[in-house]
Amino acid sequence: MNRIIKLLFVHGTIAVGIRIIFIGVILAIAITRLSSQNHADFQQQQIAKQKSVYYCPMHPTITSDRPGSCPICYMKLVKREEPSALPTAKTVSVTSPEQIAKQMKDICLLHNCPKAHEGKPCPMLVVAKEGEKIICPICGMHLVGQVAPSKAKKILYWTDPMIPGYKADKPGKSPMGMDLVPVYEEQGSAITNASSPEGYAPILVTPQKLQLIGIKTSVVERKKMTKTIRTVGTIAHDPELYQAQVEYIQAIQAFERAKQSDVPEVVDQAKRLIESTRIRLKHMGLSDDLIAEMATWKEAEHSLLFAHPGEPVWVYAKVYEYELPLIHIGQEITVQVPSFADKVFKGNIRAIDLMVDSTTRTTRIRAQVEDPEGQLKPDMYVNASIDVDLGETLAIPEEAIFDTGTKRIVFVDKGEGLFEPRDVFVGAKADGYYEVKSGVHEGEKVVTSGNFLIDSESRLKAALEGMSGSGEPHGQ
Q1: Using CA atoms, how far apart are residues 288 and 282, in angstroms rounded to an integer?
Q2: pTM of structure
Q3: Which class does domain 201-224+391-468 fall in?
Q4: Which residues pair with 418 in a beta bridge?
Q5: Which of 473, 458, 412 is CA-nearest to residue 439?
Q6: Separation in Å, CA 145 to CA 98, 102, 110, 141, 206
Q7: Fold of domain 228-389
Q8: From the centroid of its chain, how far is CA 230?
């Protein structure tokens, strides 16, 4: 009996073990299938994400994860279709540097569409093959295939745009692992013939780099410019000027009475008194015309002491010495008072002081402003503005000027990626533009955005050329 029980126990244990092994195998198969399914789902999700990329055919660097329009040329974005399987890498055998350069030249074309952005040229990077016909969808111009291929250009050397000064005599990789770019003979001659300010040199920038750094340009043109000079001042309370006016008027009246005397000394003394008071008014900044006008007055201006309805009031304001060339007697001045924010008082500049304050480097101007209701009180603060008509003059945006402290530099876009530094002389600044005296000509294009990077490249190139003693250009 005990033997039978032992046999049954052994057979039961074996059966349980077999069942456990069977269940383990089934679980392993299920887990493997689930993992494979999850991996497949993950790959499909990644492929789906990769497929959901939209780009502009004319500006391939513009991409989006949803349909829309290109912000540059306003064309509808096209969905980029990715292959379901990764393509196998192919080995391309190139036997000469000229063949490598030809392949690189056939990759892209820079087209300045004249109809994009309200007639302003819009750079488009067009991907094409040699002989392929491509028409711009905006202006209808044949971009590729309309001109017969020209004679192959001679390659001077190879360089890496990210390492200024690096040169190689054959294609390959740079120390940074980038593909080397060829520099052609025509590019070198275009640069070495350009004249540049001291410490600067012209540079070449590839179309790809132009788009990466966001170069923007503006055309040099003639504009009607008006500069507004803003300053603050007060309604005059000037007992000193009032007393000077009184003395001058009394001297004039005394001279008129002295002319009736038969004593020459009395007449001479009256003349000297007039000249003395006149010099005092002149020293206070009053013009000759204003002093001559005072000679006809019967009494001095009471508005210098207190408000007097119906009489014009004097406004004293200060302007900086660099603004003095734009200020002259007779100019219209506009005055606003915080107490009467909705009212504008107008008048004219009547006098400009002869001295410059050594501390503030400013000069006082005196203006007479009409105050028919007598609202302006002595010592009131005022905000004054003077509009100066500069006429129609050659102008460039202030963003185009790179101020080094000793000179002002602009970079002129000569086309085909060539940028030439120029030393310019400018005048007044108004409405975001500088008046140009010399350095650029009407119709030329100057860089307004990205000029900091161009300035750095130009300085570095000039420094490297100075050290090497050669005028060979960089392949930017």
Answers
A1: 7
A2: 0.55
A3: mainly beta
A4: 204, 415
A5: 412
A6: 21, 15, 14, 11, 22
A7: Elongation Factor Tu (Ef-tu); domain 3 (2.40.30)
A8: 24
- Using CB atoms within 10 Å of the CB of residue 449, give its burial: 0 to 12 exposed, 13 to 18 middle, 19+ buried: middle
- Sign of the dihedral defined by the CA atoms of residues 55, 182, 87, 36, in that order: negative
Phi, psi angle pair for 22, to nearest 5°:
-65, -45
Tokens of 69: 């329009």
Q: How far apart are CA 314 and CA 27, in angstroms?
A: 101
Torsion angle of C-alpha atoms 75, 79, 83, 87, degrees rounded to 10 = 40
106 contacts 130 by C-beta, under 8 angstroms: yes
CA atoms within 13 A of residue 199's CA, in its CB half-sphere = 8
- Could you state, in order of their start, the residue ranges of all structural domains in the chain? 201-224+391-468, 228-389
Give me Rg for the CA atoms of the chain.
41
Q: Is the dihedral of CA 299, 301, 307, 309 positive or negative?
A: positive
CA 72/CA 120 separation, integer angstroms: 11
| Average pLDDT along the chain, 476 residues, taken 10 residues at a time | 50 58 63 57 56 71 81 78 44 46 46 53 52 59 46 67 71 80 54 65 80 87 93 94 94 89 85 92 87 91 84 94 93 94 92 91 94 90 95 92 88 87 91 91 92 83 62 42
| Residue 122 to residue 281: CA distance in whole angstroms | 62
